[in-house]
Specification:
alpha+beta, nine-stranded antiparallel sheet, 3 helices, 15% helix
């Protein structure tokens, strides 16, 4: 029998942690044109299974004071970003039925009239029951 050591070579784009930390790769940051102080949010549809979209709720220049979900570079002048939002992280962890951490990929950017540029979070593998035929 031959087994693959790496079954999935696709690396994740965004990681949600149970403590509220959310890590965003440089790819996502570049697609959304993130800057220090931008506020991110997640929009959810009412469909079954629900679709989730990551988008910039407020740009840094449009905000005053502290906001939940404000992002900053994770390492000095790095290109990947980090934000803290217990509410967002717990919602995604619950959706994906995970306890501590989940890493998701994003789809192609799309324009939604009320949100602007948004990235779909690919949560489908966690929301669908996978049927495996027991008969080989």
């Amino acid at each position: 029998m031959i087994r693959q050591l790496i079954t999935n070579t696709r690396q994740g784009d965004i990681t949600f942690h149970a403590d509220g930390r959310i890590d965003i790769t440089a790819h996502v940051a570049g697609t959304l044109h993130l800057q220090r102080g931008d506020v991110l949010n997640i929009a959810t549809t009412d469909d079954t299974p629900a679709e989730h979209y990551l988008y910039v709720a407020r740009r840094a220049g449009d905000t005053l004071g502290r906001h939940a979900g404000a992002c900053k570079p994770a390492k000095g002048n790095g290109h990947y970003f980090r934000l803290h939002s217990k509410r967002l992280a717990c919602h995604i962890l619950e959706t994906c039925q995970k306890q501590q951490r989940v890493t998701l990929c994003v789809g192609c950017p799309t324009h939604i009239d009320s949100l602007g540029t948004a990235l779909p979070l690919i949560t489908a593998p966690f929301q669908q029951t996978i049927f495996i035929d027991p008969q080989p």
